[in-house]
Amino acid sequence: MGGWGSGRDSYATTPNVEECHTLDVNAFTELVDHPGAFGPYAWYDNGGNGDKVAEIGVRALPVDDASVERATHLRVEYTVTDNRTDETTDHAYPIALNYTACNFGGSRPWFRCPMVGCGTRIGKLYRPLNGQIFACRECHELGYRSCRESGDEVKQAERRYRRAYAKIDSNNRRPHPNSTDYPYPPGRPAGMHRETYETHLTKLRDAYHEWQDASLTELHALAESVGVEVPPG
User: Fold this and answer.
1) Looking at residue 46, what is its pLDDT?
2) Which of 111, 58, 55 is nearest to 79 (CA)?
3) Domain, as residue range, for 89
4) pLDDT 10s digits, 88-141
5) Is residue 10 part of a domain?
6) Which residue ranges are recorded for the region named Disordered (predicted)?
7) Same domain, 28 and 132
């Protein structure tokens, strides 16, 4: 478990796109060429290298219509479980597709946002982890983590640390700098040259010290705002 600062909420009241399940239309370029076909689509932990965390079924529509060469809709089927009550809700609905010509021939598909009253042509749809429907970023009022963290020195230093850690961790893990669940620093991965490892290790240590300094500065500012004196760190 992480310590102070590892689980602080964002000041924003809506999720970031990075916290959502994302449907990328580019993942279905083969499926749309086979109306009636069905296939699974899944999300995994740890940037795609970990355990499966969710899966939906996707069917290209229409079914049994030989006159249609490419799908006009993708029907998504999935179940959402409420983390607080364990109640489940089944969903099954079509997402309209639109095609635009490519410069060198052929065409590429786009989603039409299925939210009532929207219909925006878009390449990605999102479902927040506490949400029900896949829709565009504007409908869910989603932001980008990098934009929301602009000006937040602690968060920026944390992100630099996580990226640096992943580069020299054989399992591509990205722990919080205050986490005690992972080794610090990680050992040199098999096959990585020592010089390369030392270069990345220096960047990791620099990021860690930046995070420490930024966290201490923020802590002092917070303490000062409530009239509490913090001893020198």
Assistant:
1) 66
2) 55
3) 17-140
4) 999 999 999 999 988 778 899 999 999 988 998 999 999 887 788 999 888 887
5) no
6) 167-190
7) yes
Evaluate whether 64 touches 36 at the Cβ level (below 8 Å).
Answer: yes
Q: pTM higher than 0.85 for the full model?
A: no
Decide if 155 contacts 136 (C-beta within 8 A): no
> What is the Cα–Cα distance from 174 to 49, expressed in whole angstroms?
12
Compute the distance between CA of residue 143 and CA of residue 166 in angstroms, rounded to an integer.
24
Cα distances (angstroms) measured from residue 3 to each of 173, 178, 180 = 18, 6, 8
**CA–CA gap between residue 214 and residue 74 (Å, rounded):** 47
- H/E stretch holding 201: helix 194-225
Give CA–CA dist 187/67, Å, rounded. 59
Structure tokens at 156: 């920026």
Which helix (H) or strand (E) segment is 139 a member of?
helix 137-140
User: Which residue's entry shows tokens 């799908």?
Assistant: 71
Residue type, 164: A
CB atoms within 10 A of CB 136: 21
The Cβ of residue 146 has, within 10 Å, a number of other Cβ atoms equal to 12
> Based on the domain organization, do 98 and 209 belong to the same domain?
no
State the Cα–Cα distance between residues 136 and 23, nearest whole angstrom: 10
Q: Locate tokens 């580069």: which residue? A: 167
